[in-house]
Write a structure and sequence with these properties.
The protein is mainly alpha-helical. The chain folds into two domains: 3-38; 63-279, MetI-like fold (Orthogonal Bundle), CATH 1.10.3720.10. The protein has 13 helices and two strands, in the order ααααααααααααββα. It has helices at residues 3-38, 43-46, 61-69, 72-104, 109-117, 124-138, 145-169, 173-181, 186-194, 199-214, 218-223, 232-235, 248-279, and strands at 240-241, 245-246. The chain has a two-stranded antiparallel sheet. Strand 1 (240-241) and strand 2 form a beta hairpin. Helix 3 (61-69) packs across helix 13 (248-279). Residues 280-284 have low confidence and may be disordered.
């Protein structure tokens, strides 16, 4: 068989796989395209049947109304600030904990690791009431504090700690021995030797933490009171007309804007994310 014939056969065999991938991509991309399309339509056109993908008239003023109907700029800033603080606190907890469990290995490290890891399986709904009562006693209601402290320590830090432990544990022992011979302390060894080697895992932890914090709905709904303090997910539910119901076109415009921060974080860190998620399966 000629080489060209083999290439044709190989290409024909890949057609079903590409068709399946195309169908799956439509299932994922379709809602996003519909959201962007709806954000540029009038309310009546969004509800029209049969639906149309391309707007009859591009209504860019829908994006301006997002900021007119709500203090959306402040709410957007609230979500960004909370996300940044949660990421910082999560890394501050997860990196030393992951390093200690992987390299220091204190007595009972396996039990400690399983105990900390149990936070991954803790549903937020199961602890929201005692956490609310605790926050109310401390005067934290309608502030950023419970959204940062509780989210980072109870929900995102355990996942990030697991990722960081897996990254640290596969690094060669020789690096640590060389640093010890040079007189480096544990902290200096972690910051100067090991952290530069686990940047992909740090990026993975940051993206997961940012995504989790940005999409929180129940916690801001419970802890926050004033519209000025609300975060984006809660604010998206408030674009309603008292008589006509939800303003779907304005809501889609606001939702399109709300996707951008996490999307930007992912695009900047996508290569590091893939490396970080696969690092735990490699052996030194």
């Amino acid at each position: 068989m000629r080489r060209t014939d083999r290439r044709v056969l190989r290409a024909l065999r890949t057609i079903p796989s590409y068709m399946l991938l195309a169908l799956v991509s439509v299932a994922f991309i379709g809602p996003i395209v519909w959201m962007v399309s709806g954000s540029l339509k009038s309310r009546n056109e969004v509800l029209r049947y049969p639906p149309t993908l391309i707007p009859e008239e591009f209504r860019w003023d829908n994006y301006a109304q997002v900021f007119e109907l709500q203090p959306f700029d402040r709410q957007f800033l609230n979500s960004i600030v909370i996300m940044a603080l949660v990421c910082a606190l999560t890394l501050a907890v997860a990196i030393p904990a992951g390093y200690a469990l992987a390299r220091v290995r204190p007595r009972g490290a396996a039990a400690i690791f399983l105990l900390l890891l149990s936070g991954i399986f803790l549903p937020p709904e199961s602890v929201i009431i005692p956490l609310f009562r605790f926050a109310a006693q401390l005067g934290w209601i309608d502030t950023y504090i419970p959204l940062v402290v509780f989210t980072a320590t109870l929900f995102t830090a355990p996942v990030a700690m697991f990722v960081m432990r897996q990254a640290f544990v596969i690094l060669p022992q020789e690096f640590e021995e060389a640093a010890t011979l040079d007189g480096a302390s544990r902290w200096r060894t972690m910051f100067r030797i090991f952290l530069p080697l686990v940047k992909p895992s740090i990026a993975s932890a940051v993206v997961f933490t940012a995504w989790y914090s940005w999409n929180q709905f129940l916690e801001p709904l419970v802890y926050l009171r004033s519209r000025q303090m609300l975060t984006v997910p809660v604010a998206l539910t408030l674009f309603e007309d008292p008589l006509a119901g939800p303003r779907w076109n304005i809501q889609m415009a606001a939702t399109t804007l709300s996707v951008l921060p996490v999307l930007i974080v992912f695009l900047f860190a996508q290569r590091q994310i893939v490396s970080g998620l696969t690092a735990g399966g490699l052996k030194s």
